[in-house]
Specification:
This protein has 101 residues and is mostly helical. The chain has helices spanning 7-34, 44-47, 55-100. Helix 1 (7-34) packs across helix 3. The longest helix has 46 residues, at 55-100.
Length: 101
């Protein structure tokens, strides 16, 4: 049997997506309990995109969207710091490499 080298990255992506959705579900559960959001569908248009069938699904959509926005905001603020760290690492690596020759 021949191994397909494309299978492993696909399986990793599927597992990662599943973990992300589980995390979103746990966060949505906590928010639902904290804010005592009742069953129903009255928050679908407030929190969701209109395709959800329940407040719970809408809260998951909202959580997913907000986490993406937070990730972008955090990443944008961290780019200068990351650039500085990369510069220092590459400089150190270049100096280390020069000492070895």
């Amino acid at each position: 049997m021949t191994r397909n080298p494309n299978v492993q990255p696909v399986l990793f992506a599927v597992a990662s997506r599943r973990r992300n959705e589980q995390t979103i579900g746990r966060i949505a559960n906590a928010l639902e309990a904290t804010f005592q959001i009742p069953p129903g569908s009255h928050l679908v248009w407030v929190l969701g995109d209109g395709s959800e069938r329940s407040n719970r699904e809408a809260l998951c959509t909202w959580t997913r969207r907000e986490l993406r926005r937070i990730d972008r905001d955090v990443a944008a603020r961290r780019v200068p710091e990351l650039a500085d760290r990369l510069h220092r690492r590459l400089t150190t690596w270049d100096l280390d490499r020069g000492a070895m020759t």
